[in-house]
Design goal:
heterodimer; A: mainly alpha; Rna Polymerase Sigma Factor, Chain: A; 71% helix; 0% strand; B: mainly alpha; 2 domains; 13 helices; 69% helix
């Protein structure tokens, strides 16, 4: 499985578009889930996913096999997400004085899109570095060691962030009166 | 067991360990709740990712964008920059410089033998300083805005232009010295002739350069001409007026002090290039 992925990346490095499609098929769901948690918006997540695949297509020659293909892929996705999200324009000031719209807002829509549970909304409220760890471990399904490699932190930090995230989630749900 | 629950929830355990945890979970409600709490972090099901058409879009984008821009400058970059900047120098500048220098040579050749060097020391610096004054700045540079928008640093542009204009004036003055030396214009020969103009030329040009970069081409040209006139007056009308004559002679000669001052002023100009506030530039914005 691991060697298959490495062979795919080697084919991509030689300019094989079909190999890129196979690599995408293998990782699309996990990458998209991860980016969706990071971006909080489906369209933005799709754009970042496209940026990621473009970066993979262009830099596949730089993959030396020092890390697992999945670590490499999520590292690229994370970098692309930071490029894209950092450039996000701030919300327009007049929105603050606008009357609330009775229709479901983006948050409600996001909750509905993510499965319709208040849980997903609460996860979305976590601070960035907690949300990212949760997305890597539970959504993308990376082993803890790989998630640590992607983030560039020790495994212990990944674990402690997960515990913090879980505690924060429990607190949020308790205040919202949702049974765990 | 508690430590393994997280790994179990993430699915990172191998088959044996998983079976072990599952056996424990079957009889322990607290640990089952713990695993459920971990799994809750994953949130609900995600919408489906975009289909394989995304890869087609990526390949299309890659083909349309072309290869990524080179991060390293090619080896011939300096040469290309020199050629590009040479096209921005208005032809009037080198032509006028050459004509004035020719006039200087004619004057020096017809003057008494020991004055040839002094005549050249008066002509060469002002030619170079006026050429340098028009080197940089929004008023004189037709490509100022275009150049400001390129990734090439303003300091590099300025250095290139200095090399072009000052190099050209240097060649002119050397040629003039060569002509005069072969005509026997100075008893000291070529070396004495070059010694007469090199220091003043470097100092006056450097001063003119700083003013052109910091204040403007007109001020730079004006100051250069005024300083030059003072030098002429000190040598001529005022005659030998003691300290003023001595001071002018020290400054208007080739020595370590003048060369060092010229180098410092040039470095200052290169440092200042591109640091001005563009909004206050002449015609940077259209009047309403």
């Amino acid at each position: 499985m691991m060697d298959d992925d490495a062979a795919l990346v080697a084919l991509v490095a030689r300019g094989d578009g079909g190999a890129l499609a196979r690599l995408y098929q293998a990782y699309a769901r996990r990458l998209f889930g991860y980016l969706l948690r990071l971006a909080g918006d489906r369209m933005v997540a799709e754009e970042i996913l496209q940026d990621t695949m473009l970066a993979v297509w262009r830099s596949a020659g730089g993959y030396a096999g020092a890390s697992a293909v999945s670590t490499w892929l999520f590292g690229i996705a994370r970098r692309q997400a930071y490029y894209r999200l950092r450039g996000q324009p701030p919300p327009a000031p007049f929105e603050a004085v606008d009357r609330p719209d009775p229709a479901p807002g983006p948050e409600e829509l996001a909750i509905a899109a993510a499965g319709g549970t208040p849980l997903a909304g609460a996860v979305g409220d976590l601070p960035d570095h907690h949300r990212e760890v949760v997305a890597l471990v539970f959504v993308a399904g990376l082993p803890l060691a790989e998630a640590a490699a992607v983030l560039g932190v020790p495994v212990g930090t990944v674990k402690s962030r997960l515990h913090h995230a879980r505690a924060a989630l429990a607190r949020t749900l308790a205040t919202q009166g949702v049974a765990e | 067991m508690n430590g393994q629950l997280l790994e179990y929830a993430t699915g990172a355990l191998d088959d044996g360990e998983r079976a072990e945890v599952e056996a424990h979970l079957a009889g322990c409600a607290r640990c089952r709740a713990d695993v459920a709490a971990w799994r809750a972090l994953a949130g609900g099901a995600d919408p489906a990712p975009p289909g394989p058409e995304l890869v087609h879009r990526v390949l299309l984008r890659s083909a349309l964008d072309g290869p990524p821009p080179p991060t390293r400058r090619p080896a011939w970059f300096s040469l290309a920059l020199l050629r590009a900047e040479a096209r921005l120098v208005r032809p009037a500048v080198p032509i006028a410089s050459a004509l004035v220098m020719a006039l200087g040579v004619a004057l020096a050749a017809t003057s008494p033998r020991d004055l040839a060097g002094q005549v050249l020391a008066l002509v060469a610096p002002v030619v170079a300083a006026l050429g340098i004054a028009g080197l940089y700045g929004p008023r004189r540079d037709p490509a100022f805005e275009v150049v400001a928008a390129t990734p090439t640093a303003p300091a590099l542009i300025l250095l290139t232009r200095i090399a072009l204009v000052f190099g050209y004036d240097l060649v002119l003055a050397l040629a003039a010295s060569g002509v005069l030396a072969t005509l026997g214009g100075d008893p000291g020969g070529l070396f004495a002739l070059v010694d007469a103009w090199l220091g003043p030329m470097a100092l006056l040009s450097a001063l003119s350069l700083v003013l052109a970069v910091r204040v403007g081409a007109d001020v730079a040209a004006g100051v250069a001409v005024v300083l030059w006139s003072l030098r002429v007056l000190v040598g001529g009308v005022f005659g030998d007026t003691g300290w003023a004559f001595d001071a002018a002679r020290v400054v208007w000669s080739t020595n370590a002090g003048t060369v060092l001052a010229a180098a410092v002023l040039t470095a200052l100009a290169v440092f200042l290039a591109g640091r001005g506030e563009p909004i206050r530039r002449h015609r940077a914005t259209y009047p309403v």
